[in-house]
Amino acid sequence: MAISVFDLFKIGIGPSSSHTVGPMRAAHDFVEELRQRDLVERVARIEVKLFGSLSATGKGHATDRAVIMGLMGERPDRIDPAIVTPCIEELLETNTLMLDGRLAIPFLWTRDLQWYEECLPYHPNAMTLVAHGHSEELWRNTFYSVGGGFVIDEGQAERGELDQDSTVLPYDFNSAAELMALCRMHDMRISELMLENEKAWRSEAEIRDGLWQIWQAMQACVDKGLQQEGVLPGGLNVKRRAAALHRRLLATRDDQSLIASTFGAMDWVNVFALAVNEENAAGGRMVTAPTNGAAGIIPAVLHYYMKFQPGACERDVVDFLLAAGAVGILCKKNASISGAEVGCQGEVGSACAMAAAGLAEVMGGSVAQVENAAEIGLEHNLGLTCDPVGGLVQVPCIERNAIASVKAINAAQMSLRGDGEHFISLDKAIRTMRDTGRDMQDKYKETSRGGLAVNAIEC
Fold first, then answer.
1. Which residue range forms the structural domain that includes residue 230?
2. Is 378 a residue whose pLDDT tops 80?
3. Residue 219: half-sphere exposure toward Cβ, Cα within 13 Å
4. Do residues 424 and 375 make contact, with C-beta atoms less than 8 angstroms apart?
5. Do 117 and 191 belong together in one domain?
6. Residue 164 has what pLDDT?
7. CA 44, CA 358: separation in Å to the nearest integer?
8. What is the pTM of this model?
9. How many Cβ atoms are within 10 Å of 184's Cβ, its own excluded?
10. 10 is a domain residue
11. Are the CB atoms for 372 and 320 separated by under 8 Å?
12. Which Pfam families does this one have (predicted)?
C-alpha cells in the first residue's frame, strides 16, 4: 500500500474527517458509480443507512448533512462550507434532493436517512447507500470511513485492501526501523527520502507547490479562527476563545520579555491550535492533519516554528510536512488514525508524533532524533480515549489539540537534547497504540457512551 503525504494532508471541512469528510467523499463516489453505470436518470429514491460510530455520533459530527451534500455532487475539498446549511434547509422544506446536482428526487429525511447501532464487520464507521428505481433496486454499496478521510468500499474491505494505490515507491518502508535504515543507507534525511517517494506521483515542483498550498490553507484557517467570536453550534454553548486570547497577545506584543518567555510562546501555540479546532467545530474549511479532530496540532507547531525561528522559510514548511507525513504513514499502516477504531490516541497521538517529528526535522535533528521525537509524542498519548461530549468535536477535543501541540514541541526539544538513543522505539509505541486500541472498550471509541461524554451530563 502506497500512501502519499497528500493523502494525510487534505483540504476539507469540519467537524470530522471520519464522520464528515469521509462520508461526503463516499456519497460522491456512490454517485460517480451510478453515473458510470448510466443509472442516475433512473433513480427514483436514495436510502442512506448509517452504522456503528457513524450512527452514534453522526448527528454531532454532521454525518447526515455531509452524505446529502455528497449525493448532491459536492466534494469535501471543493465545497464552500457556506452553502451547506441553505442546501439542507431547502431539502427539508421541499423534501427534494438534487441528485448529482441536477436530478430532483424525493427525499424524506425521517424515512430515507436511517441510523443503526450495530457495527458492520470491517470497521465501526460504516454506511450503506441504496439507489432505487421506480420498481427495482438499481445499485447499492457499503463504504467504510477508516479515518483521516480515507474511504474504502465493501469490495476492498473483503479483499483486505486499505487503499487502492499500488504505486511502486523507490524507498518503500513499513516500519520506522526500515525508514531509518533506508535514510542511513542512502545518506538522506527523512524529508529527502519522502520527497523522492512523492516523485512517484508528481514532479518536485508540484510537490513543493502542493505542500505550500496546504500550508496556506492552514494559515487561512488560523486567520479565520482568530477573527471569529461567539458560540459554537451544536447545543453545548461552548464559547470561542481564540479571538479574545489573540487580542490579549497582540496587546502585549511589544513586551519582548513576555514574547520570549516560555509562557508567551505557549500562549501563541495555544491560540493557533484553538483557532483551527474552533473553525473545525463550526464546520469551516481546514486541513485534515491527519484527521479533523486533531487538525490543530500540526498547524500550531508549524506556526510556532515560522513565528519564532529566525530564518524560517518556505523550504522548511515542505521539509516539516514531509517528515511529519512519514510518521503519519507509519501510524496508519501499523495501527490507525481513526478515533472510532483506536480512540483519540490514533488522532491526537498520531498528530502529536507527526508534529514532533516535523519540528525536529527542520531544527536539524538527525534521523534518530526525529524518530525519537515522534516516539515521545506518541508514547505520552497512549491510551487516550475518544469520548466527545454530545458527539461534538468540541469538548475535550479543542483544548486537547492545544495541549498536544505544546507536548509535540517539548518532545522535539527533548529529542534534540539527546543523541537519538532511547529505550522504546517508535515502532513499539505504534504497536502499543494498536494493541491498546484493540483492548479499549467501544464506549471510548467515538461513540459518546463513556468517559467525559457521560460524566459531563448533570443528572
1. 176-455
2. yes
3. 11
4. yes
5. no
6. 61
7. 50
8. 0.93
9. 12
10. no
11. no
12. SDH_alpha, SDH_beta
